[in-house]
């Protein structure tokens, strides 16, 4: 179980840093607003997506959050990463900016599978 916890926390920390901390740092910045405008999103979309991202990031790391809500956070981040890749491709064409958000599926999947592995181990105990 120790190995699973280590993998879980490293992977989840990457997601938390990128989708929680970085979102807080750039929340409402001119760079963020310009990016949303560049992709053709309405002005309300950026803050809404940022708030959901922050809530989801904290939902993954806080131990008292029920497993069902963590599932929603994992799903939300999956949709977010896919949506970012599609938006980049549709507006700027194929390039690294399309691949970059999809790279976050690696720590997200590691976190997800280790979370369920730890839950099964807890239930078996």
Could you describe the 3D structure shown?
The chain is mainly α and 125 residues long. It has one domain. The chain contains 6 helices and no strands. The longest helix has 26 residues. The mean pLDDT is 92.
Global outline = elongated
Q: Helix- and strand-based class?
A: mainly alpha
**Cα Rg:** 16 Å
Strand content: under 5%
Query: How confident overall, as mean pLDDT?
Result: 92
Report the end-to-end length measured between terminal Cα atoms. 11 Å
Helix count, per DSSP?
6
Q: Helical content, roughly? A: over 70%
Give the total of domains. 1
Question: Unreliable segments (pLDDT under 50, ≥5 consecutive)?
Answer: none
Question: In sequence order, what are the helices and strands, one letter per element?
Answer: HHHHHH
Quantity of strands, as a count: 0
Largest sheet: none
Q: Which features would summarize this protein structure in a list?
A:
125 residues, mainly alpha, 84% helix, 0% strand, elongated
Write the layout of secondary structure elements.
Layout: H1 2-26, H2 30-38, H3 45-61, H4 67-92, H5 96-103, H6 105-124
Helix pairs in contact: 1-3, 1-6, 3-4, 4-5
What is this structure, in a nutshell?
By secondary structure, this protein is mainly α. It has helices spanning 2-26, 30-38, 45-61, 67-92, 96-103, 105-124.
